[in-house]
Amino acid sequence: MTRLMTLLATTAALATPLHAQEITEFRIGLLGGENAQDRMASNECLRAYAEEALGVPTRLFTPADYNGVIQGLLGGSLDMAWLGASAYAAVFVADEDAVEPVLVKTNMDGSYTYHSIGFARADSGITSLDDMQGRSFAFADPNSTSGFLIPNVELPEAGYSMTEGEYFSRIAFSGGHEQSIIGVVNGDFDAGVTWADGQGEWEDGYNSGALRKAADAGIVDMNDIVEIWKSSPIPEGPVVIRKALPDDVKQTMIDLVAAMHETDPECAYGIAAGETSGFTPVTHEEYETIIAIRRAEMN
């Protein structure tokens, strides 16, 4: 028996008829960042494993923006999602009892941080933010940590105003990380920000993140873009589970995702957006700083 078959046998044993009585389906929200079709394809393996382990229909949901996942978790129409730190903060600020963080993506070196990465076309002549005066800048989504929250804090601290027209000629939300990458490559924006672990090689799109996904998909040749800014380390966002779910359902899903890196590396690569060392336990305390930043931005 393979390790994956052993895992499924174990989780199936947990999926007693009690599960069917307490939940009739399981719903996984997929945060924006790439197009809906690719999000579904990358996570279909997770959906299939969860359905077999829980013994109930499991569905993937791909709202158009980050807020769709946030509202789904707050309203109880989603049971699980991998959120960015800012999106988790938004859920927690709105309802502290809605979800609980359970796992975090871990980098190849064992860390669980990543960076907001500023980038521009290699032929643009832009090599740093000092070259961006009077130019357009694309951000992903208002609820994205790396795609807005952290740049909105760190860029002004470094002397670059985030008031449109004062330094950057135009500040726009592209709708997601993939859209920002495409927008810059196509010349719709002079530069943009996205997320990456910052480890490995630039030519590969680093080890994991939106650049790696875009490079793998053939959306961008990394030789055609250059890095112009990198944020300080950001705590990787958590996998969250709806608190109201039965404990055995929650534990089944935690065990399934935590073991995925070993049981099905290809599936783990897809759901983690690249090369990682898997998902490890995390607690709410890791996100208190991001929550404080989020609260401050709301005032």
TrEMBL record:
<protein>
    <submittedName>
        <fullName>Phosphonate ABC transporter substrate-binding protein</fullName>
    </submittedName>
</protein>
<dbReference type="InterPro" id="IPR005770">
    <property type="entry name" value="PhnD"/>
</dbReference>
<comment type="similarity">
    <text>Belongs to the phosphate/phosphite/phosphonate binding protein family.</text>
</comment>
<dbReference type="GO" id="GO:0043190">
    <property type="term" value="C:ATP-binding cassette (ABC) transporter complex"/>
</dbReference>
<dbReference type="GO" id="GO:0015716">
    <property type="term" value="P:organic phosphonate transport"/>
</dbReference>
<dbReference type="Pfam" id="PF12974">
    <property type="entry name" value="Phosphonate-bd"/>
</dbReference>
<dbReference type="GO" id="GO:0055085">
    <property type="term" value="P:transmembrane transport"/>
</dbReference>
<dbReference type="InterPro" id="IPR017797">
    <property type="entry name" value="Phosphnate-bd"/>
</dbReference>
<keyword id="KW-0732">Signal</keyword>
<feature type="signal peptide">
    <location>
        <begin position="1"/>
        <end position="20"/>
    </location>
</feature>
